[in-house]
Specification:
This protein is an alpha/beta fold. The protein contains eight helices and five strands, in the order αββααβββααααα.
Length: about 180
């Protein structure tokens, strides 16, 4: 038996890939089920166009982040986010899709190959994404507690950390969402 076959027996791959509402979803069966619930909430909204145009892949990960620069823009989702309510998860997908939209819009407008970090991350961009997330959550009839939480985040949106250099990487590693 070759090493590859042996490792497949010892460590069976528990990640799966499927297409849900036009978006590639990679992760465990439970992750895929929860992602389908969230995308199903978003699908009837006009704002789903922003999600569908700016997120090609949603992938299970250790912490959440948006790889807007990837050939297939990818939203990596941490367990605290995808195991929360389907409503909150839907809002998170919308939020990070908006980061990717800001990245893509800046890339189309500018002559720079790679947009400056401030164009799609950082305080100003975070506020725009939170406004979009709140709008989506409102359309989905989220309760006042959830909407107020998003509003409080928008008041002091420095929780995501720095958006450049090693400090950015270290702040990313501290994420618990």
């Amino acid at each position: 038996m070759c090493n590859l076959e042996f490792s497949r027996i010892l460590f069976p791959r528990q990640r799966h890939t499927s297409i849900i509402h036009g978006i590639e979803v990679r992760g465990s069966v439970e992750f895929q089920r929860r992602t389908e619930e969230a995308l199903t909430l978003l699908r009837p909204l006009d704002q789903f166009q922003i999600v569908g145009k700016n997120v090609a892949v949603i992938r299970q990960g250790r912490r959440s982040s948006m790889k807007a620069w990837a050939k297939k823009p990818t939203f990596i989702v941490g367990k605290p986010t995808w195991t929360h309510s389907a409503l909150w998860y839907a809002g998170a997908i919308a939020h990070d899709a908006y980061h990717a939209k800001l990245y893509g819009d800046t890339r189309k407008r500018g002559s720079r190959k790679v947009p400056a970090a401030e164009a799609w991350t950082g305080v100003e961009a975070e506020i725009k994404c939170l406004v979009f997330q709140r709008h989506v959550l409102s359309k989905l009839n989220a309760g006042e507690a959830m909407l107020n939480y998003v509003d409080r985040c928008a008041e002091k949106p420095r929780y995501q950390g720095r958006n450049r250099g090693w400090g950015s990487w270290l702040d990313y590693l501290k994420r618990r969402w």
